[in-house]
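ingest -> fold -> write
write: protein_1
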Amino acid sequence: MRAVHDFHRIKRLPPYVFEEVNRLKAEARARGEDIIDFGMGNPDMPTPQHIVDKLIETVKNPRTNRYSASRGIQGLRKAQAGYYARRFGVKLDPDTQVVATLGSKEGFANMAQAITAPGDVVLVPNPTYPIHEFGFIISGGAIRHLPVSVDSDFLTRLDRAMVHSVPKPIALVLNFPSNPTAIVADLDFYSEIVSYAKKHDLIVLSDLAYSEIYFDIDPPPSILQVPGAMDVAVEFTSLSKTYAMPGWRMGFAVGNDRLIAALARVKSYLDYGAFTPIQVAAAAALNGEQDCVDDIRAIYRARRDCLVECLGRAGWEIPSPPATMFAWAPIPKEFEAVGSLEFSKMLLERAHVAVSPGIGFGELGEGFVRIALVENEQRTRQAARNIKKFLGEAGELMHNVIPIASTRN
């Protein structure tokens, strides 16, 4: 029997950077240690009651136990089209421009399967959420990274990548508000991207999973608001964060009808869609009162403010994120030499606080960690107390540590 690493697609995947931290976290909990976990972006709030009630009501109907529709039931696709009309002023045909997916992650991976031939080049931001890159790697594509930003430098790098990539890139991935960096794009940026994509026959795949988690700024726009964007773009959204429904696995791909048809074709061979009661409840979420979204956003805002304030008092200055459920935190200067993975391990072992090492989101994530706003304010204050003590021991801890640069020689 072959070892797992003998298989072609598995050999293309690097070791999972987060696995080492996850292993240490599991071992600490097995010893009875209380780990304050800011690692995984896993919403901890209850799903709003009216959505749960709709699920319960629907599941009582035995007919809903049958296979569902791979591309999503019509009522759910109409509900997503209605959301785009209200929120962005974008008109979508629910029959040809909307597909329901098993979360945005599955949608991205299957879109990669649908459009990628072996050796195709895809332009991906760095750092970024891993599926943006590895969905295409698994599909046989090649990745060219673009340092993530929303300024003229990004467009300069984009043009350079188009000119110097062989073969010519087929697609560009965008993710704003960004996971992990929390950077937000505006419509002027999207307009330039759409113009460039149309000129160079480039597909644009936009991940808008954090469209409703924003603070102190205008609501983040959709690339599909740009005239002509429907000719080149597909956008992915998710109910996971907006409605605290991560385990329900409900997301969408919307936009260009040719690309949506390709995604729907691939999905038709792979799944029968989400369980029908989940789809009905998801439609109720989109069609119902949106006060619950405001409440969830307010919780994240309070947690963000608590995190930034408390860690600042502890001696760790963290930029306040304008959106998403993450803070993108530079490693404290005392620990820069060890890198993000080793720092994350030390923080877990010494302070009982778990974070995600920035290197897990790409090589340009080195020097940072991602902190998810998934612990309540009381737990955040406890984490800050632990971290303050940890930072006070920095000199002693770093005395015998080999700098990360030395380990690369």
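write: protein_2
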Amino acid sequence: MTSLPGPTAEEQVVFLGKVERILSEGQYVATYKYALLLAIADLAVKLGCDDGSELDLPIRAIAEEFIELYWRQSAPYGNSVADGSYNILQQNTGRQAAIISIVDNLRQAHGTLIRARQSPAWDAAVAEAARLVREMPLWRLQRLRNEVLDFLYAESPVAGNIRLKHGVAANLRRFHAIIVRLAQSEWMHFIQSLPGNSQLLGPTSDLSQFLFGADRSALLRMSTPLADVQKGQCLYCERRVDSGEIDHFVPWSRYPRDLAHNLVLAHKQCNRHKSDLLAAEVHLDRWLARNQAHGNAISDAARTANIIVDLSGTMSVAGWAYAHGASLHAATWLQGDEVEPLSGRWQFLLIEYG
């Protein structure tokens, strides 16, 4: 497709305003539209670029994102009900959302998302989820009560795809963190508003973590394998780690997904100092070298821990994050309270290790 100039500042503001409108003015009877917006935003990060180009997205890829998004939410939640059992949160104003049944069947048969992906049942589940996407939210997301905001995508000439319009992928990439927070917040409020969830929720302080947080138990299972590939050292300061933490190299606040090769072992203090900042280029170099040398070992451990293995996707996310940081002249974390600007070396590093 033809490369075009990226969206202007005025076009970016208009885009964000329209996203806010579909979240606040749209009619919602289920959580599918929130999931759809999150899915296309994530795929824009993995597959798109920062110019104004259109981008074709396979509906099958959106369906796989749906299954991943709903995997946690199909697990039992909340206070036990009268018979002592635990129920699944309602995702629809009427009967339970059909995607929950698809995901729950996979969960019951295979236990973990990783095993489900590797099973013969995966293709059929994705096909059914793709049918739901086409029939339910895909052509309703841009509809308001009295208006259609036809600005995100249209049918693609390529069968089975939608086509993001000029500048949409670039805007989704630029404002990914904002869009994710908006969509997740509205999704959580919708779930809280459903009468069928009132008995389950009780105090809701952990609802956001349950719906959208990192799987801490899975991350803990990566501690030993990451210590092995990092030779017992913190990725950042290269000193020995006796009791460390798992950090998302590209911060969770920027891309809230657990991807195996994005995980690193770090000292608690290094993790706290780095916080939501991108790591400096010296750390990027070390992280890329680790993944190149030990990518297979990390993949094997992650599959056992039920964490998504997608090295090429992780590299795309890293490229997007550093390009976005450079465009904003963002500071990167070096050590302690020290930060430094990006020099441009990050581009050569990603090409070298790509």
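write: annotation protein_2
Residues 216-353 form one domain.
Confidence is low (pLDDT under 50) at residues 79-85.
pipeline exit 0
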